Amino acid sequence: MGxxxxxxxxxxxxxxxxxxxxxxxxxxxxSCPRSCxxxxxxxxxxxxCSSRHLEEIPKDIPRDAVFLKLDxxxxxxxxxxxxxxxxxxxxxxxxxxxxxKIDGAAFRGVxxxxxxxxxxxxxxxxxxxxxxxxxxxKLRLANNPWHCECALQEVxxxxxxxxxxxxxxxxxTAPRDEYVGKPLLQVLDAGVNFCSVRQRSTDVAVxxxxxxxxxxxxVYVVCxxxxxxEDSCKHGRQPRALPAAPGRxxxxxxxx
Length: 256
Hints:
alpha/beta, Leucine-rich repeat, LRR (right-handed beta-alpha superhelix), two-stranded parallel sheet, 10 strands, disordered N terminus
């Protein structure tokens, strides 16, 4: 009986140690999203979520992910701090989605180490320049329905754009119809400056507002002066009773 008890205790201890070792071996911080596939490439983790009908960026991406492919999905928006916990990311592929809106803080937390960001083939018309100018990554922005304006011009001048795709950044809409359908780089090379156009528009608006204010002041002054003149004329038309001379009044009384 004692031997059997000792054998049972030893067996239980061995099972407990094995279970504890199994817990230690589980990569708790590196679980893979159910809709994705995680692989190792040269010791770096790649999270592959291409063509998975995703409508938003998964929130359970492993913290040690280095390569993230989210292309060919139905993602419509990149919210602020979407990749904040993914400080090891070097490449993000968001091409061929339906992205229309990108928050100014969308790439906060990955700006330092990110080397490549692909946003081509989406529905992006405009983008906050602070979302991209803080990045050192090579950017792909081609094949989007861009509205050519000052913010996009500043991104083109200051961000690191992929030279192979920069000529595919085309003006879908623009302040003038003659720029529509043309590559933004070609329009800028022709001497167009969207930032100066916006400044001129602002100056014109300020001048119009100032002119309107002065016109209101002038109209008020004219009406005030005219009103005072009319009051003066009314008072001038009323007959005033002249006081009788004292000597004549006494003479008339004596005669009666």
